Known about the structure:
Strand order of the largest sheet: 3-2-4-1-5
Shape: globular
Number of helices: 10
CATH superfamily of the largest domain: Tetrapyrrole methylase, C-terminal domain
Low-confidence stretches: none
CATH topology of the largest domain: Methyltransferase, Cobalt-precorrin-4 Transmethylase, Domain 2
Amino acid sequence: MLYLIGLGLNEKNMSKQGLEAIEKCDKIYLESYTVDFPYTMSALEKVIGKKIIKAERDFVENMDKLLEEAKKENVALLVYGSPLTATTHIALVHEAKEKKVKCEMIFNVSIIDAIGETGLQLYKFGKISSMPTWQREKHYQPDSFMEIVKENRFINAHSLILIDIGLELKKALFQLEVSAGKHDFKIEKIVVCSRLGTRDSKILYGTIAELKDKEVKSPYCIIIPGKLHFFEEEILKGF
Length: 239
């Protein structure tokens, strides 16, 4: 059996259902390549009471070894937030079904729930995009995430941008500003959400110039608001 278990947003968010599943497991893997965790692996091991194996991208995306193990024994893959927010994990569930490997998903809170703390109405968000880290020496400066932001703006929707591991806020805001210029897109104010769901939670609201020297801890995300309801605007002003 393969268990895909959502960890939520802090080390104490693990559900009772998730802990019961882990008790049955012979191996416990932690998907470690899609997010900067706001806590250590040892802190999580204390909560679940078992040793965790760090799973890198190749191991999860290749799938074969993981699914072969899950055919013979109970295996857990722990995922930050909720287990099916990443397309890799949806593909893993599909592959498990194809190979007749039993698979159970245990859901939890994710960033998509937590951004409600900003006061922005969740049903007014459009497509989610991701900002990768630019590498000038390799001429790697993708800005296609801006196309999604433009699509969302066209329907007055808010845009959630997930930020790549290791990308500091100042550099992310530089990339955002350059990308917006290339796409002839005007940004007035943005929301920066850091470590939502933890004791270090922080929400900032302002222009890129106002926020570029602020310090935030990973993981964090950026929101470009669409058309604001007066109540949304009132709450944002508090940040």
